[in-house]
Design a protein that fits this description.
- The protein is an alpha/beta fold.
- α11 (262-276) runs antiparallel to α12, α18 (406-418) crosses α31 (746-754) and α24 packs parallel to α28 (710-718).
- The structure holds [cytidine-5'-phosphate] glycerylphosphoric acid ester (C2G).
- Residues 406, 488-490, 492, 494, 496, 584-586, 622-624, 649, 664-666 line the site of [cytidine-5'-phosphate] glycerylphosphoric acid ester (C2G).
């Protein structure tokens, strides 16, 4: 047997395990065994039972990855051991490539390394969606079949398959690294995964992992390995896929697990490494790395910021490192007194110097021009958040200050009406023009401030209540007496946060940040029981803080009058004698110009709609607030109106006789009006499978038909009465499930609970 793949398994990554196993099954070179070592994992057997792998499982009573790996070294039957993590995967060519390098270099191939690529299982970017099927099914047999059966293969897939063959025909290249390159070039992070090491070499040199340091045992292990080996052959092609964990709350990677002793353990690992090393160059490099780690990671981290006692053990380790003989290392002049104090054991002095260094650093950032946001944050944290709370002040924000709308608007209006003199209202709005004609902004007790202005940082600190429909910046310091009321902005249809497998086109820290932000909400409003259930899973939000009261924003849909209808229509310049179609689609995760800047291609044939429906109807187009493209409707003057930037979609609902949407939550609200809804879902297959997936069965449970072409849309509008008849029963059920709490009094209930308690 040529290879033993050693995989420690700690059950914090079940989602990835399946991919890991599959990538091993898909290896073109199959002469290997897999050793899984775990500590009471219930699910490992289940996963492996179904697999075709040649595997063995070992249960180990200790907790550490280090001792798991040592079991693997002892038990391995293969000539070479590949250290792998259970949340990573291999390219199908990984082992065949390694085998080739070994065969060509029998005498010198003691240590090999697969070059690492990072991947996040993200299926949405073009590259990854192409790679996925190729990666999953890439056995030679399968590839052959694919090429033979050309009708099943798209040009794109064909190219990928041919590329893969080329990989095989042309051997991958590799580079050899010598001892003095190891530390800096080869293994910056000093992790054992992706290394392939000859078993006899490990045993002869007594290379095992030290089990004392459960976080950083790899570092001294690799330093010892570097001492013993002449060269390491690393592939130039990326063959080892390291997964990015985007859910550090539920599925943290080892480095994401919170540990207060993390910094100490790391400095200990540096110390151990330096003691183990016989190579002068490596000693010097470890020393330099330890000093840099101390300067830029230890003292700047909050855990060590507070007490001398906490940082003392780190100083002691560092002292021992600094006292090891080596060529002198370069240290910046301003850091020298601090490092010298540590070396000589004057730890109190070192502590004082490190604190002063941090203080000087924050002052220098504060006074630097162009660092306004930093100054604002710092002022908010250190001064504003310590000011007394203004008990009668309420701050509102809707769609990040983009408009005056949604539940914050409804609650504001309710309070103006019911308690006109009691409150000071402050609205976060980026463009004052938006409200210049709104009478409710005339009073002296209503202020408007732009998001991220100095006043914003002041009011987010001192307002007793903060009512918002999206999320507040995570860095804002919250006063203990402050109350944050999150209204959220829709009944969920698309999977959200923790229910999403992949977070697409967004930050990989998204889930963790979302979690932290939502912990600061004192209340969260749900429109219905269904949303309440979803919020407990998708946001991991505590059920007891959810107010399942119906949506304040939907009060107006119940309470509006026919006069309101005509007044709005007139103010928007829409002919009173025409019926109105509202087209309000959502955004698409995979269509964007840049991060957060989405595009939309109008797939509704306005020309045909005007021809067929223009006598009776006009159409109002309402793009999602993420869409930055501007529609050019000049050709359709008098028939099509763009109200994408209009403040409040509720006004558009009220004047519309029917709604066309797709996967936007707008239909949950519009259904309150009991008017027809059509679903123009031309990209349903892609949206559902490739992107996020839905909470409800869109094929069966929607209150209107799914349509795929403009012609179908036209046809259904012409026969709208029969659509209503056909969907009568489904509409009723839908209304009961999602709209029944919207009785026009949600604002009142929320105010009673949040502002009167
Ligand atoms: N919206 C709008 N115009 C659109 C689409 C949406 O004004 N063309 C507003 C509506 O108030 C809607 C809200 O934005 O309820 C949320 O929009 P969705 O399309 O549902 O998408 P998203 O912003 O991703 O929110 O729980 C709801 C989810 O968070 C979805």
């Amino acid at each position: 047997m040529e290879f033993s793949i050693v995989i420690p398994y700690k059950e914090n990554s079940p989602k990835f395990l399946e991919y890991c196993i599959e990538s091993l099954e898909n290896q073109i070179y199959q002469k290997f065994e897999v050793l899984f070592i775990h500590n009471q994992s219930a699910i490992l057997e289940d996963y492996l039972e179904k697999s075709s792998l040649n595997y063995r499982i070992f249960e180990n009573t200790t907790e550490t990855t280090a001792s798991f790996r040592n079991v693997g070294i002892r038990e391995a039957a293969g000539n070479y051991i590949l250290f792998m993590d259970a949340d990573d995967f291999l390219h199908p060519n990984a082992l065949i490539y390694a085998k080739r390098v070994i065969d060509e270099n029998r005498d010198t191939a003691n240590v090999l390394k697969l070059r690492i690529a990072k991947t996040d299982l993200d299926k949405t970017s073009a590259l990854k969606s192409e790679k996925k099927p190729f990666y999953r099914s890439a056995t030679l047999d399968h590839l052959n079949r694919m090429l033979e059966n050309t009708s099943d293969v798209s040009a794109n897939e064909r190219q990928i398959v041919e590329d893969l063959f080329n990989y095989d025909v042309i051997p991958h290249d590799f580079k050899s690294y010598m001892a003095d390159d190891y530390f800096s070039k080869l293994s910056y992070h000093l992790k054992a995964h992706s290394f392939i090491i000859k078993k006899t070499f490990l045993l002869e040199n007594n290379l095992f992992f030290n089990t004392q340091n459960d976080l950083y045992a790899d570092m001294p292990f690799l330093i010892r390995l570097y001492n013993q080996t002449e060269e390491i052959k690393q592939t130039t092609t990326k063959l080892y896929y390291k997964s990015i964990h985007n859910d550090p709350i539920n599925e943290p990677s080892a480095s994401q697990v919170e540990r207060p002793d993390r910094q100490l353990k790391k400095v200990q690992a540096f110390n151990e490494s330096i003691k183990e090393s016989t190579n002068d160059i490596i000693i010097k490099k470890v020393k330099k790395a330890a000093v840099n780690y101390y300067l830029y990671n230890v003292v700047t981290k909050a855990s060590f910021k507070e007490s001398f006692k906490a940082v003392l053990p780190v100083y002691q380790e560092l002292q021992s490192i600094l006292q090891v003989d080596s060529e002198p290392i370069k240290i910046k002049k301003r850091h020298r007194p601090e490092i010298d104090s540590i070396k000589s054991g004057s730890f109190k002095a070192a502590y004082f110097l490190s604190r002063s260094r941090l203080f000087a650093y924050s002052i220098s950032r504060f006074i630097k021009p162009k660092k306004t946001r930093y100054r604002q944050k710092s002022l908010q944290k250190n001064i504003f958040s310590k000011l007394p709370i203004k008990k009668r002040t309420i701050l509102y924000e809707s769609f990040l200050g983009r408009n005056y709308s949604d539940s914050p608007k409804a609650l504001f209006n309710y309070l103006l009406q019911e308690e006109p003199d009691k409150w000071q209202h402050v609205w976060i709005l980026n463009d004052k023009e938006l409200i210049k004609d709104e009478p409710e902004f005339q009073g002296s007790n209503v202020k408007v401030i732009p998001r991220f202005s100095w006043r914003y940082f002041y009011y987010v600190s001192v307002a007793k209540y903060f009512v918002l429909n999206m999320r507040q910046p995570n860095y804002l310091e919250k006063h203990k007496d402050q109350v944050i009321l999150s209204t959220w902005h829709g009944t969920p249809l698309k999977h959200l946060v923790f229910d999403m497998d992949n977070v697409t086109s967004a930050n990989k820290k998204y889930k963790r940040i979302f979690y932290e932000q939502s912990r600061k909400w004192d209340y969260l409003i749900a429109d219905n029981k269904y949303s309440e259930n979803i919020f407990t899973s998708a946001f991991m939000y505590p059920r007891e803080n959810i107010l399942t009261y119906g949506y304040p924003r939907n009060d107006i849909l119940v309470n509006h009058t026919p006069e309101d209808h005509d007044r709005i229509k007139q103010s928007l310049g829409i002919p009173l004698d025409k019926k109105v179609i509202l087209y309000a689609p959502t955004w698409r995760d995979d269509e964007f110009h840049s991060v957060g800047n989405y595009k939309f291609t109008l797939r509704l044939n306005l020309e045909r709609l005007r021809e067929e429906l223009g006598d009776e109807y006009v159409i109002v187009l309402r793009m999602h607030y993420f869409i930055s493209d501007v529609l050019d409707l000049s050709e359709y003057e008098g028939f099509a109106f763009d109200y994408s930037k209009y403040n409040d979609i509720n006004d558009l609902y009220i004047i519309s006789d029917l709604l066309i949407t797709d996967y936007s939550s707008v239909f949950f609200d519009f259904a309150n009006l009991k008017r027809p809804i059509l679903f123009y879902t031309y990209d349903l297959a892609k949206y559902k499978d490739e992107l996020r997936g839905f909470y409800i069965d869109v094929q069966n449970d929607l209150p209107g038909p799914l349509l795929y072409t403009s012609e179908e849309v036209i046809d259904r509008i012409k026969n709208i009465k029969s659509v209503m008849y056909e969907y009568e029963e489904k509409y009723k059920l839908f209304y009961e499930q999602y709209c029944s709490l919207d009785d026009g009094k949600a604002s009142e209930r929320v105010v009673e609970e949040v502002l009167k308690s």
